[in-house]
Design a protein that fits this description.
single chain; about 80% helix; about 180 residues
């Protein structure tokens, strides 16, 4: 893109490149967009660009860059009291730490994200985050807690997939059989 492109145009171009799988090119454009939003005083959008960069760095296995970008985005959203974006960024950090095999860090980020989504009344994102949290706790070796949190996530989802609905049905059947209800 040329230097006369506006910050929103840069953002859209970065998203287009990302969706096309052109990650190196998207990084350059998101960096330009982040600088443009910062110079315009739009911290929320600048934070979004940092979050986007963190996601790309994670996909490319650039762990330290991803951590740095996502932590910066989280700090921006926290400072601005944008709790939804803060929770989304914490979820991305949790996914990053899970990819790195850093399960305790993943667990902490995912737990914080799930709590924030619950406070916001965002049941779908809370449920999705609880599913991811349950998996991490399971992988840490606490099978009982991991399964309980995963099950809680399944029941929290507002729009479960077909397989999630089937699993919910099986869990409900198990409950009825065990409790005689």
């Amino acid at each position: 893109m040329d230097k006369t492109s506006s910050a929103p145009e840069l953002k859209e171009e970065g998203l287009r490149l990302f969706q096309e799988g052109l990650y190196e090119e998207a990084v350059v454009i998101f960096e330009e967009a982040q600088e443009a939003f910062t110079s315009e005083g739009d911290e929320i959008e600048a934070g979004e660009m940092m979050n986007n960069l963190g996601v790309i760095y994670r996909m490319r296995g650039q762990w330290e860059e991803a951590i740095s970008a996502l932590e910066e985005a989280q700090a921006i959203f926290g400072r601005l009291d944008d709790h939804n974006r803060e929770a989304q960024t914490l979820g991305n950090l949790g996914g990053l730490y899970a990819s790195m095999g850093e399960r305790n860090e993943a667990k902490e980020c995912l737990r914080q994200a799930a709590d924030i989504f619950a406070e916001l009344g965002d049941a779908q994102h809370q449920g999705e985050t609880l599913l991811a949290l349950g998996v991490q706790i399971w992988k840490l070796g606490d099978r009982k807690e991991g399964l309980a949190i995963y099950e809680s996530g399944l029941h929290t989802l507002q729009k479960p997939t077909i397989s999630q609905k089937a699993l919910r049905g099986l869990l409900n059947l198990r409950h009825r059989l065990l409790t005689g209800a």
